[in-house]
Design goal:
Length: 232
Amino acid sequence: MNKKISIILSTYNEALEIKETISKIFEFIPNAEIILVDDNSKDGTLEKAKSVNNQNLICFSRKTRGLASAFLVGLINSTGDIIGWTDSNMSSVIKNFPLMINKLDEADVVILSRYVEGSKDNRNKFRVAVSYILNKFSKLILRSNINDISSGIHVMKREVLLSAIPIAYGHGEFFMEFLSRIEKKGHKIIELPYVHPGDIEGNSKSFPNLFTFSRFGFFYILRLLRTLFKRQ
């Protein structure tokens, strides 16, 4: 597929892995445009990113924080015919992107999924169980055919945005709502298996401790219910 590809990265204190993630993107998608939106990291993330010598890397710095709004900033400033997103601290999954992009010949959106044949989740058992339950609950509530609606790691055709624009507030729950709206509009979504890497200390902004994890979970469920009622 000979189209321009934009990959959005949302960062907050990702200094340990950000250069590896950027280099992996350029390795597997050589002509990609990377739109990096940093939320005022204190560990030198932005400086490390800017040290990468590639004109296709465009960095933005904000004083505010928020995954959803950072994604929207990246989206607004992207110019690709294909738009993708991945976690900034999961460089191991980027090798899947060439296949994901090729699959857009037969779909509108392609996501990496932990719940289709051939996938695996190597995180700790508690997080694996909660993610699985959340996705099963979400699939039921939203009447969706998507198995991993909370994955977020995706590529999509830009024209999808003509019928569904993400409502950019909150954390990862915004993408669940976005995918549900895309699905209801009749766009074809394909899920591909991947191996979710194991836990690394500090690699999750949603699970630094049980209180924060529970708080995020509450807002995920609240967003799901709002999405359901909006359609009724």
